[in-house]
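Good morning,

Attaching, inline, the backbone tokens for the sequence recovery test we're adding to the shared suite. The designed sequence is right after.
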């Protein structure tokens, strides 16, 4: 059975473009000095807050039963929660890269560490699919035992930007967690999103 996010990508790409299961190129995800400068300007000029505000607004409309836009989908299941952000055509690739980096930097401030920062490229014949991925876990200190249990905080967090031929197609935010006696109960997913979006 295909995952929620795989189904989303298939729907976006209209056919079997995602059938390639193994990337032909896999390398560490790195940002250039020019990118970092542009990212800092994006934060400083208020664009970050504007974009993140739109995402948050769409989420709370969706939760309230109001489908105000097609910007966002919500996924909930046993052991995992997530959102899929569908970038409108006005959002360029670099802007979407800024978004996942903003999310990553925000999570790192919550006593998490970056376990994976990876770029994957898939050859789909006439098309190229690119996946920029961050995988974050609570730090060793953040997992300090509480009452004999490991503190999993919000859980393990995956951030992905999927693009097709350098056009952004999907931003994935996925939280997975453990439900056994070795770990504390995971913190609420909506509290995680409020933190991610810096909503008090």
């Amino acid at each position: 059975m295909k995952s929620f996010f795989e189904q989303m990508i298939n729907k976006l790409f209209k056919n079997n473009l995602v059938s390639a299961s193994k990337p032909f190129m896999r390398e560490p995800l790195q940002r250039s000095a020019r990118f970092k400068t542009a990212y800092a300007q994006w934060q400083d000029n208020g664009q970050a807050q504007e974009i993140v505000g739109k995402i948050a607004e769409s989420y709370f409309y969706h939760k309230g039963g109001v489908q105000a836009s097609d910007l966002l989908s919500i996924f909930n299941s046993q052991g995992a929660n997530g959102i899929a952000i569908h970038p409108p055509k006005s959002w360029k690739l670099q802007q979407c890269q800024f978004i996942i980096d903003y999310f990553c930097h925000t999570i790192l401030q919550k006593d998490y560490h970056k376990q994976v920062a990876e770029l994957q490229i898939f050859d789909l014949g006439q098309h190229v699919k690119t996946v920029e991925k961050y995988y974050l876990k609570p730090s060793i200190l953040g997992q300090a035992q509480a009452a004999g249990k490991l503190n999993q905080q919000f859980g393990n967090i995956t951030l992905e930007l999927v693009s097709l031929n350098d056009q952004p197609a999907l931003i994935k935010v996925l939280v997975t967690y453990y439900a056994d006696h070795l770990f504390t109960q995971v913190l609420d997913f909506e509290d995680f999103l409020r933190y991610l979006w810096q909503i008090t």
